[in-house]
C-alpha cells in the first residue's frame, strides 16, 4: 500500500490592485493519493465435502488458478477451470487449495481539495472549498466470487470467478466555513 497526502499553499503576494489580491491570493491545493495491491483471498466450495459439520470447505485445485493480467476480465478474474466441482472432490477430505491463493483487483484513488480563503477583516476569514473524492473517476473493483459453482455442463455458474463489487465513483462536495 502506498498513500501520500499533500498540501500546497500558493505563496502570498502583495498585489497592488485590490481585485487582483482578492482573486489571486489565498489558494490552497491538498489531497490524498492511494495505491494498493489486491487483497489475498481463498477459494471455497459451498458444501461440507470434508464432512466436519461446516457449511463450506476449501476447494481442490488441479492447475495454476492465476491468469496473466492481460487475460483477466471482470467476468473471469482467475482460471475457474483450475478447480474441481464439489461433486468430483474426494468426500471426507479437505480440498488441497491453500489459504489466500488468489490476489484480487488493485485499488487506486485520488482525493483532491481546492480551497480559497477570503480575508474579511482582522481575525475573520471565509473559506470556500471544493472537494472531489476519486477525482479521476477510476473504477476500483473490490470483491471476487470465490465460491466454486459449476453447472451440469461443467461451466462456471452464479458468477464464480467474477469481480462482484466496486468502490464509489467520483463524488463532488462543496463547503464554506467562517473562521473567527
- The overall number of domains is 1
Q: Assign an overall shape.
A: rod-shaped
Q: Give average pLDDT, whole number.
A: 91
Structural class by helix and strand composition = mainly beta
* Proportion in β-strands: 35-45%
Instruction: Report how far apart the termini are.
Output: 39 Å
Low-pLDDT segments = none
Number of DSSP helical runs: 1
Name the strands of the widest sheet in spatial order. Answer: 1-2-7-8-11
Q: What's the Cα radius of gyration?
A: 26 Å
The percent of residues in helical segments reads under 10%
* Helix/strand order: EHEEEEEEEEEE
List the helices and strands and how they pair.
Elements: E1 2-9, H1 18-24, E2 27-36, E3 40-41, E4 44-45, E5 57-58, E6 102-103, E7 107-121, E8 124-133, E9 141-144, E10 163-166, E11 171-179
Antiparallel strand pairs: 1-2, 2-7, 3-6, 4-5, 7-8, 8-11, 9-10
What do you see in this structure?
The protein is mainly β and 180 residues long. It has one domain (2-179). It contains 1 helix and 11 strands. β7 and β8 (124-133) form a beta hairpin. The model has no long low-confidence stretch (mean pLDDT 91).
Amino acid at each position: 500500500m502506498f498513500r501520500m497526502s499533500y498540501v500546497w499553499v500558493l505563496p502570498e503576494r502583495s498585489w497592488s490592485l485590490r481585485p487582483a489580491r482578492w482573486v489571486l491570493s489565498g489558494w490552497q491545493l491538498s489531497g490524498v493519493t492511494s495505491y494498493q495491491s489486491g487483497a489475498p483471498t481463498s477459494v471455497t466450495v459451498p458444501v461440507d465435502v470434508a464432512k466436519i459439520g461446516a457449511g463450506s470447505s476449501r476447494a481442490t485445485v488441479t492447475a495454476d488458478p492465476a491468469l496473466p493480467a492481460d487475460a483477466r476480465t471482470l467476468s473471469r478474474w482467475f482460471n475457474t477451470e483450475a478447480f474441481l466441482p464439489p461433486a468430483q472432490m474426494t468426500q471426507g477430505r479437505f480440498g488441497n487449495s491453500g489459504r489466500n491463493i488468489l490476489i484480487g483487483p488493485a485499488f487506486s484513488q485520488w482525493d483532491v481539495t481546492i480551497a480559497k480563503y477570503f480575508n474579511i477583516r482582522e481575525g475573520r476569514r471565509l473559506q470556500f472549498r471544493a472537494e472531489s473524492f476519486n477525482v479521476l473517476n477510476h473504477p476500483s473493483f473490490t470483491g471476487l466470487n470465490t465460491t466454486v459453482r459449476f453447472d451440469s455442463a461443467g461451466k462456471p455458474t452464479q458468477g464464480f470467478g467474477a469481480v462482484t463489487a466496486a468502490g464509489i465513483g467520483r463524488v463532488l462536495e462543496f463547503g464554506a466555513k467562517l473562521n473567527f
